[in-house]
Amino acid sequence: MPARNAFYAQSGGVTAVINASACGVIETARKRKDKIGKVYAGRNGIIGALAEELIDTSRETAKAIAALRFTPAGAFGSCRYKLKPPEESRREYERLIEVFRAHDIGYFFYNGGGDSADTCYKVSQLSQTMGYPVQAIHVPKTVDNDLPITDCCPGFGSVAKYVAVSTREASFDVASMAKTSTKVFIVEVMGRHAGWIAAAGGMASSEETAIPIVILFPEVVFEEQKFLAAVEAKVKKHGYCTVVVSEGTKGADGKFLADQGLKDAFGHAQLGGVAPVVAGIVKRGLDLKYHWAVADYLQRAARHIASGTDVEQAYATGKAAVELALKGHNSVMPTIERVSDAPYRWKIGVAPLSKVANVEKMMPRGFITADGFGITEKCRAYLAPLIKGEDYPPYKDGLPQYVRLKNAAVPKKLPAFEL
Hints:
The protein is of the alpha/beta class. The chain contains 12 helices and 13 strands.
């Protein structure tokens, strides 16, 4: 059977290590010229397939592709664009198959989170009924760490490391100024429904380096008076307190504290801005001097302090995606299976997309302390190996050297498509 081309696309919010997965996909595919011809990447994610804006990765040198492992963000461009169900917008799926057919694409590698897993699953199903079978493999990625079945998600370990380090460093700063200045520092981190990233802030405190930290999780209903009492107690005992708040923190009414009534491209509530809300609560309730910060894009772009474990796993899942496709698998996702905590050992597994799509993995209640404001030892044992290891990019003149690809366009063969 002649070699067929592959299509790779990045979806949703990018991470410090999503390009490491791209590197794993492309380098592995290049070693199997007998089965895979060229790897085309979608310019700006799945939109690249719909608009027939494909990038020919074969035009890139081996050195440039290898440099993706050290480069943050999405080298080919990502997007927040969710395909509607086939019954609502069959024309989009027909367009995908039309583009795949025109460019002899037999493999579809979609690198993203839960919505991407859903898209990948639908494409694999519909391609069969449309008479053009495509092997669709989902490459896991999400800083939120909320994909099911897999022990962790590539992208999370590096965000967790950044948040843990930043929380520790900022807390040292606050402690040194607390006598006459700031008493409460509030840092807002990502996490719409799952508090995994917020939990990482708890890693800043250890037996050797104790720090008074209050964590606000999406899984725990925010109670203002209980929160103020916890902050006040820590300030009285230690002179200061650091608050790590997830953007998805909700009140008793079920509404996000940061919900301004806006929606993102996926129809989710547009969050961001919970730190100043919490700061206002501290000011009104305790009249303490505060500062707040929003980690925002910094937490997911910080390749300079990426977790060594995370980089390794991101590359491994990209590599495994190609290997699974070559073994005949379809509609699956490579997973990370934890073999042991100490020493930390893991291996690649596989999960059917039917059990991954539209399923979110929340923080287990056993990972959160009884008072709802901290992490347990069980949680520490889970998080510790995921933030371990350094994998620094090459530096020049004091700055990290990141690659910019040529991203040469593949000639179009079809009429334009209205998105």
